[in-house]
Design goal:
single chain, 402 residues, mainly alpha, Growth Hormone, Chain: A, globular
Amino acid sequence: MKSAPVVSAPNPAPPPSGLSPFLTYFMATACAVVVANLYYCQPLLGRFSAYFGVSETAASWVNIYSQLGYGLGLFLVVPLGDRMVRRNLLVWMILAAALTLAGAALSPNIQTLYFFSLCMGAASTACQVFVPLAAHLATEQARGRVIGTVMGGLLSGILLSRTLSGFVADHLGWRSMYWIGAGLMVVMSGLVYRFIPTEKPAFRGSYGALIQSLFGLLRSEQVARQSSWIGACLFGAISVFWSTLAFFLEKPPFSYSLSTIGLFGIVGMAGAIVSPQAGRLTDRKGYNLPTRWGLLLMLLGYLVLFPSQHSILFLLAGIILIDIGLQMAHIPNLSRMSSLAPEARTRFNTIYMTSFFIGGTIGSVVGSYAWNGYGWTGVCVTGLTFVVLGAIPTVVRQRRGL
């Protein structure tokens, strides 16, 4: 039986107004607020363990279910951005995120929290509809910078959500954080409807054909396969670290409170600050150079983390190096994918970010078991392994002179 044909419209031209500075920063802010939903839980994992009377491993699955939901949403929902008006899709997804956050706030047991974390992850992929939209609206010469700015906003949301969550949970309880998140989603849905422009969808096939086309794009583009592998390893490496940090800092010799643990998100803001610069460097120098620099910085960061059990300075330095390295490698990698086919940008973003968060989920799972089996040394070895695996395609390209 023949599959339904994949029908794409001619390359859609950006709207006459282009991408204004206001709209660029609004989308960066929206990405930050939406993606934060996934990471409110990370400083709270120890609190979940005590509150629900479950093991640390069981509590860590709240974070893992969020990542799994995000991966499912990337694959099954985000591609609709090529088939329907993206503004409408964004509004409905953000409202769905508000409902799932309210469900999490009302969870009577860990199993219910798992369920709503999974649904929350899927709805929060709205932030990944903004990225190809920004790439579509930007000019060719400024695409790397624009993607870097929007992704900088996304990273800021990831990092600052941990700080906000730790503070709120310490003073108002962990359920309050989810209620606050739900309120933010309702407000953001209204702002998105007000400010995001409408545009004509580029894909006119069925939903089945849309999803099927993802596999065709992945098979036909070697760049997509290479970038997806690198992205998966990048986020796997950083998830190993961030998903276990709360357990590490709650125990001696540090024994920090949730508010203090949350402050470590601010340290990672170095990566968000570097993100637009990584985009500019990509516009000027191409994709390969910043990707290699980023992988090298992540490698160095994990080497610095090994002795951090004995000094908080090593821990701070390691966080900064890893987060800067992530953005230096991630932005050119994503820009490379966005340059492949204008009419399929949302689907290429889906391919890349699905791989990215599958890697993150694997990193969270493996990191949890590494922590429980081998402690902080196991976490560092696991993270280092992900970085080395991510460097393989760049080493191969360099040897081939690509």
